[in-house]
Amino acid sequence: MYDPLLDNTIPADQRAPTSLWAEDQAQPSYPQLTQDINIDVAIIGGGFTGLSAAFHLVEQYGVNVALFEANQPGWGCSGRNGGFVLPGTGRLSVAQMHKRWGEETTAGIYAENLASVDTVKAFIDAGIVCDVQAGGYLKLAHTQRKTEQLHQQARVFSDTYNDKIIPLSQAQVAAEYIASTEQYGGIYHPNAFGVNPWKLAHGLAKRAAVSGARIFGNTPVLNTEFSNGKHLIYTPNGNVEANQLILATNAYGPNKLHASLYNRNFPVMSSILVTQPLTKEQLDKLQVRDGLMVMDTRSLKYYYRILADGRLLFGGRGAIAGRNADSVKSKQNLLNGLKMTFPELGNVKIGQFWSGWVNISMDDYPRIYHDKATATSYSAGYCGAGLAFSIQAGKRLAQQLYEPETLPKLPYFQTPLKKYPVAPMRRTVLHTLYWWEGLKRVVGLD
Ligand SMILES: Cc1cc2nc3c(=O)[nH]c(=O)nc-3n(C[C@H](O)[C@H](O)[C@H](O)COP(=O)(O)OP(=O)(O)OC[C@H]3O[C@@H](n4cnc5c(N)ncnc54)[C@H](O)[C@@H]3O)c2cc1C
């Protein structure tokens, strides 16, 4: 698999990722750029961030926009994720945010997280068909101590931020949500829902194109320059001159693509297994509430949901380097996690296995940043929780360019992504972390 830390260019003109989501779907074919053009805003990257930015720039500000995607929209993370539409992004708990930024800012971030789910809902209400599965989200503790922490969080969510989070005991989880063998209590977010993310990405691309954004597929950006207040953007068969540049490449941008993101991203692989449709007997054993999406509290988390046709989608960490994405070992590691979580499924048959890159930011929260001096913006670093947030971020990127004074005063908008101090060591550190977490699991310290 393409590896953004090692490869200097992204592969182009690839088919949709081999996920369940794109199976049996028509392949989109946005045309390649084949001439030189002049525009106001150039967007690199056709995932949720870039597509939402393109849509909002045209719809709300009437801007002349073109988006350049190396493959077809949704080819990156956006078309191959788990489809959990959740409030929240990054890896900081509310308590950590509180400590870092105080009460008012934490409340603002919380409101932004809730707004991101509303933004996705608004697109769906306006006609994007993406197989919505209502059912809510259960965060499931894997120790008693974690149950207590989750319940404490739920109290803060409800009392301070007026969000309806339901604390659940182990008995309630087992009786009403999932008959899991290894878990404790948890908290339930009723407003979260599942989607087919590939269909959502294509619905967004269509909305942006119908609004008037020009979308180019099979158009990898090879290089950019900024000179005399203009961006020059080079692609294989046509070059672009633009006043503003938005980098919406997130984990998929080659590390050296643009100076403003160099060594500020950490692409980490997440993988997904999907089983064949479970039998009635298997489903009866698991007793998962309809449409429920689940994630545990381990530092290397597992996440899962039962799809409408009875398949179990199960995700977790993937390989470290792109070349090992599809290795037998990588698939087996995830299968072991599935079997540990659901021993009652025995030798369940696997249908699909695929992987994608998420972007871990140095300080565990993303940035939606505009640098006036170089007329360059980006949004990145969602740490694996970016479906809803990236669509909100696209809206904010547009607003940041044309109505910056109306942005909420939140830390995302104020500073650039931090640089990794010893960038070449990123993968060595990750390797050690995986080894340590694996050891903790084996000796029961997890
Ligand atoms: C397996 C997996 C499961 C996940 N599950 C969930 C989930 O259930 N819920 C959730 O909230 N989040 C989830 N995520 C994270 C979520 O998918 C991402 O945060 C989100 O899709 C990021 O969108 P994006 O537009 O920023 O990036 P992307 O969708 O990755 O888009 C970036 C695009 O830029 C393009 N690109 C890069 N370089 C160039 C170039 N030089 N020229 C042209 N184009 C270029 C790429 O081809 C790519 O399409 C998951 C991620 C993975 C990998």
TrEMBL record:
The keyword Oxidoreductase applies. Keywords: Oxidoreductase. This is FAD-dependent oxidoreductase. It comes from the Bacteria. PANTHER family: FAD DEPENDENT OXIDOREDUCTASE DOMAIN-CONTAINING PROTEIN (PTHR13847:SF281), SARCOSINE DEHYDROGENASE-RELATED (PTHR13847). Residues 40-399 form the FAD dependent oxidoreductase domain. Gene3D superfamilies: D-Amino Acid Oxidase, subunit A, domain 2, FAD/NAD(P)-binding domain.
